[in-house]
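Can anyone check this?
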Amino acid sequence: MYDPAGSRTLLAKAAMSAPLLERTEEYELARRWSRDRDEAALHELIRSHMRLVLALARRFRNYGLPMADLVQEGHVGLLEASTRFEPERDVRFSTYATWWIRAAIQDYVLRNWSIVRGGTSSGQKALFFNLRRIRARLERTGGPLSNSDEVHSSVAASLGVSVEEVARMDARLGCADISLNAPLASEDPGAAERIDQLVAPDPLPDEQAALQIDTERRQRWLHSALKQLSEREMRIIAARRLTDDGATLEALGDRLGISKERVRQIENRAIEKLRTALTQGGAAPSNAFI
């Protein structure tokens, strides 16, 4: 049976037993890998810096994610650093690799800490990983902790983000993900689910039914009234009133070979016919064409 704790112990022992590299040794290994693609040099460089991965991974152990996964992601960052490292820049590999290891672990935490994606901007990432630390520092130094608003204001000033962003992140960090299909009463498997308590923005079923019936009735009245129009009146009403972009009187006059004043007269007469037909048909006076 696989034992995660035992695996972590062996990994930690292997990392701690790897010898630390002198600056010249580190430079030579990095140069051999960068220039000659010497995999033996790469393995030695990686093995000697695994303790750095372990040290950085431990800083993120309080986010509820497996330590082995954090180490694995840190190892990915270490490999990325070894690929991009340029020995000629006279920078220690550990200094350069630290940024890549931390970035890989942070990205893993943001992707897996919650099913809701967070930390999409640099400010939100800094807020996510520093909110707890700044809270603890304020508590140690006796900072303004009399209420949540003062805490959020202090954190926002420290990180250069808005108070609203701090408040939202604080609320997210303070509670775990909850399934909407979880029962409200855990001891009763037949209890209502949390999703049943959400307020739907749609109208109630009886309101939807009434709206559908009224809409169908109005459509029948309108279709019946439109049959009272002549062909030319119907063309003008359709072009002027039954389209999103109504045609102008002048454009319709050119199309029909009449003046725009004549188009206006025909349109007014057609509207009166429709109003009369709708009233006689039992519908309330309609302002759809007015």
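Reply from J.R.: I decoded it. Confidence is low (pLDDT under 50) at residues 285-290.
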